[in-house]
Amino acid sequence: MNARISQARRWQGRSPVLAPAAGLRYGVAAVAALAALGVRWALDPVLGAHSPYLPSALAVIVAAWFGGRGPGFASTALSTLGIQFLLIEPRYSFAIAHREAVAGLALFVVVASLISVLVGGLRASQLASTRAEEALWRKAQLVNLSHDAIITADSSRRITGWNLGAEEMYGWTEAEAMGKSIHDLLYTGAGVSTAGIDEILNREGRWDGELNHVARDGRRLLVESRQKLVRDDANQPVGILEINRDLTERKRAEAQLAAEYRKNTAILESISDGFNTFDREWRYTYVNPTAAKMVGKTPEELLGRVVWELWPQAADSPFGVAYRRAVAENIPVQVEAFYPEPLNRWFEVRCYPSPEGLSLFFTDTTERRHTEERLRQTQKLESIGLLAGGVAHDFNNILTVIMGSASSGLAECVSCEHCKAILSASERAAYLTRQLLAYAGKGHTVTRLIDLTDLVSRSKELLSASVPKRVSLGFSLSKDLPCLEADPSQIEQVLMNLVINAGEAIPPRSDGLIEIATRSFEVTPEIAHRHSQAYDVAAGNYVCLEVRDDGDGMDEATASHIFDPFFTTKFTGRGLGLAALQGIVRTAKGFVEVGSSPGCGTTFRVFLPASGKKRPPESARSTPRQQVRGDSTILVVEDEEMVRKLACAILRRNGYNVLEAQDGKDALRVLADSPSLPSLVLLDLAMPVMGGDELLPILKAKFPSLKIVMSSGYPEDEARKVAPDGSIASFLQKPYTEAALTEKIAQALEAR
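RE: above sequence
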């Protein structure tokens, strides 16, 4: 390296060969000619007419040697004029007296011109040679300044030149390498044989490729070699020029980078997160398969495309703002937002700027958000379910007393309007409780196979009576629908709620139309995924109930709250209908779609899973039972005193012998003291001290023949969870009327 630096310094200190300027060259020619004339003029007294041309000939030689042919000709011309004017008779005149003088002057002109041509050519040749030597010297210095190994060899590959780059790369000095075979010295190895390389050199004149060499200290080197065959004028090989560049470290680094790239690529292509990179002009430079799949495209469709051209709607979205902020402020940015049409999903995006552009990691958080929302909905429903259950139990006990007393009063005085009003109000209160339980997904259900078209058809008269007189109903009911497996009363409740809601959406004293349609529908996985945030939906065959009105419609803000409990746009105190509808549909594993806009009406579509079962033919409806009076003994076990007293009074009025107990423990005492076993026990489910769930297995163990009717304000399916199959004769839902109580007791006593 020191030798290379010193040579460079010597090169920098050496002045290049330059030709004199034209003015100087012609000035020297003029001075030489005048000087020669002056010398000849001074010697004229001695020489006389002899040798007038010799000094001028010397001047021409000087002018041509210093300035070239042009200054030589100039000196010839100036000398000719001077000699004619000063030295040829008559003097001081351009006339010539003697013919011999004319011949002599002409001969001088010819000779001087030849001298100018010959000496000027010699000067040009010498100057060109000097310049060539200078160029060769400079090239030699460049060769030694190169870090590449530059080697020359004869036709048999014996080394004839070895630069400083070769010394540094291989470790041998020029003196040590000279005359040795390149292949033997460096242990040349390649993908092709050395003989094959020589064959290509002889055929094509050059060879480029990679060679394996061994340095003096045993290091293995991989070099990029360029070789050229040098030929003489007879086209015979006379030497080889070889330039080798050490690729060892570069190849090692490239291999490491390639390994890192493969590892990182494998990681990026296997992770569940999306990963993109962009250049400074927002073009995709890398897209992993997950990212492409998330946006519904292939990596090839995205690479090289500008992101804003593909997703113009994303430019002003939270993601677009985050991207630009990351690049503008050169800081990482994280944002989670809803990615715009057509993706319609939630993404969490992490932006990392770099000098080359921007890297993005993004995670589809839609499922997580849906799961969190479903969890919140579940927790909300569980809370409401607990509240509804407690309210139903206590409220139904109160309603039992009210309804039972009103029905008993009505039995004694059929025309009592007060009893009728009380009974009607109580039934509405009981319906409100059932709606609350339905919203919480804990309503009383009796599952049957239902033909939705048949159910709507049988409800036409009731539906017509439920809407304003100026509103017409239209029906488009599909035949041969697959059956539903649901509670008919709940589906009727859904239908009634939708129709009543549609009627209220039409402005008062205005003509309107409500269209009711049924049809089958295939729910794809994409549709199921779209509704998975609010409903537990699976792909498959569904039956659709559609109710469309031409009323005022709703804006987005209103539509987002229509399923909230007690939310209403009409008047205070209502609004549980759609909330209960959603609870019923959710329990049935269905979902609801709502389409509406201001001034364009509203469409509700309820989708319920179709059943693969066929509905059996309906049997003839049974006629209502006649009022039955009994003489059996009944044990009433009820902790609410008002309910217990009412039930006992009704049963005694209908001819039964009645025993009373306020809880399970008290019931066991009453049974132990009774001389005979009662025929039936009317057993409340929830009681202090010992509830019906604790008493039931004791009664079945001690008195297996004892018939039991369980009563509760909780829904029947919830109450039956504590009663093994066959352990109770029947279930009596609170609140109940006198007729309902006596009917259940009579049925249970008659059953075998």
